[in-house]
Design goal:
This protein is α/β, with parallel strands linked by helices and 349 residues long. It has 12 helices and 15 strands. Keywords: Chemotaxis, Cytoplasm, Hydrolase, Phosphoprotein.
Amino acid sequence: MIRVLIVDDSALIRRLLAELFAAEEGIEVVGTARDPYDAREKIKQLNPDVLTLDVEMPRMDGITFLRNLMRLRPMPVVMVSSLTEVGAEETLEALALGAVDFVTKPKADVSYALEGYRDEIVAKVRAAAQARVRPGPARSAAAAPPRPHQRTTDKVVAIGASTGGTVAVQRLLEVMPPNAPATVITQHMPPGFSAAFAQRLDHLCAVSVHEAQDGQRVLPGHVYIAPGGYHLELHRDGSKYICRVTEGELVNRHRPSVDVLFNSVATSARANAVGVLLTGMGSDGAVGLGRMQAAGAVTIAQDEASSVVWGMPGAAVKAGHADQVLPLERIAEAIQAAVAPPSQPTQER
């Protein structure tokens, strides 16, 4: 039984979430709290397994409370965020502090909209209960090193991630050099969040990070992130690669889907690609990673110990689609080794 504490300043949201969870087998709402001060006492009394935490609350905002919570009593937290630019930035900060995942709070017709999110909310709470919580302070933006002159790319890195992925992607890109190969990324997130995610990474990394645009040229030293609500594909146009951003059907219940990205990379880049599947709930990307492997690409999966949720990379590993299974801190090095030109044999005199 997963014991859930709901923290939200809205009595309506507290009631709706409590009713939603009450209808699910294996989940028990042990209490609700109207603000962080109330939540602090309820956590001591009720010892919940998972917290749902509103970002915007009176007296103390959710980010400040989360920072204190992760320092004093780390536990799985699913953030409840508003669909606004500010809400997106705060949610990314929460994920960097150690929150497992987030759901978005609808702007209107809350009762009907939350019912539509039932499967997503329940799945994320169940995943959070099994997640490995890794608290850590969000890193402050630093001046990025000089960026490389643009040129046509040949090698391409494709990365897929979901639950826990915003932090994993950040840590991976932060150690990539400014002349890193072009990188395309599908991270599961809703519309309105991907632009803030790209901007955050662009401030932190030596590579230049963008929210991908349809027809955009793909260049080394640059990273392209799938826009929320759209699939991202890599296409070859003569001697160069370009992004294709489409609003196709859901794949594996996702848009953007990692499988869509990986399948396109397998077709367009073949052996000139490296596929990386990071932490995430479900199995999206496992089949696509297998297609990349069959096309000659090097394939890498994050290991279980360093993943928040080992669903997606675990599915790829179990299917035999990962050439290497590595902890997060070793993946950047493995990418660099995979894209390095072969060494020239020494000629004997």
